[in-house]
């Protein structure tokens, strides 16, 4: 018995909303990075669900590329967080406004 595609879409929407809430409300750079990762994972769930529904592998290939983009984003994000911590001794993203001209 297969799981209907609507369940995957509801799960994806819930994960995306949790990630969006984290991006909009938190000031910690690590929480911000994890929230963006949740949003990317929600998009990957959508890709795989639609791939399952249409019976081809295109969505799964896009999800694989999405995971590669997420890994690159984490590498860059961790570098930015380390620079924030070294300059401000905190990972609060609102303190980075002092780096403006």
Structure explained in plain terms:
The chain has about 100 residues and is mainly α. The protein has one domain: Helix Hairpins. It is about 75% helix and about 0% strand. The protein is built from 3 helices and no strands. Helix 2 runs antiparallel to helix 3. The radius of gyration is 17 Å and the shape is elongated. The termini are far apart. The model has no long low-confidence stretch (mean pLDDT about 90).
Secondary-structure map with pairings?
Blueprint: H1 5-25, H2 29-54, H3 58-88
Number of strands: 0
Radius of gyration: 17 Å
H-E order: HHH
Q: State the name of the first-level CATH class.
A: Mainly Alpha
Counting H and I runs of at least 4 residues, what is the number of helices?
Answer: 3
Helix fraction bin: over 70%
The main β sheet shows up as: none
If you consult CATH, what is the topology?
Answer: Helix Hairpins
Shape annotation: elongated
CATH architecture: Orthogonal Bundle
Which structural class should the secondary elements be placed in? mainly alpha
Instruction: Indicate the mean pLDDT.
Output: 90
Residue fraction in strands: under 5%
Q: Measure the end-to-end span.
A: 60 Å
List the uncertain runs.
Answer: none
Number of domains: 1
């Amino acid at each position: 018995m297969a799981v209907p595609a609507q369940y995957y879409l509801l799960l994806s929407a819930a994960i995306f909303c949790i990630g969006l809430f984290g991006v909009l409300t938190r000031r910690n750079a690590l929480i911000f990075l994890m929230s963006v990762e949740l949003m990317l994972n929600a998009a990957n769930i959508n890709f795989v669900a639609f791939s399952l529904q249409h019976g081809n592998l295109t969505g799964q290939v896009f999800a694989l590329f999405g995971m590669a983009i997420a890994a690159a984003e984490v590498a860059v994000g961790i570098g930015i967080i380390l620079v924030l911590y070294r300059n401000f001794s905190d990972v609060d993203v609102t303190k980075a406004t002092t780096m403006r001209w």
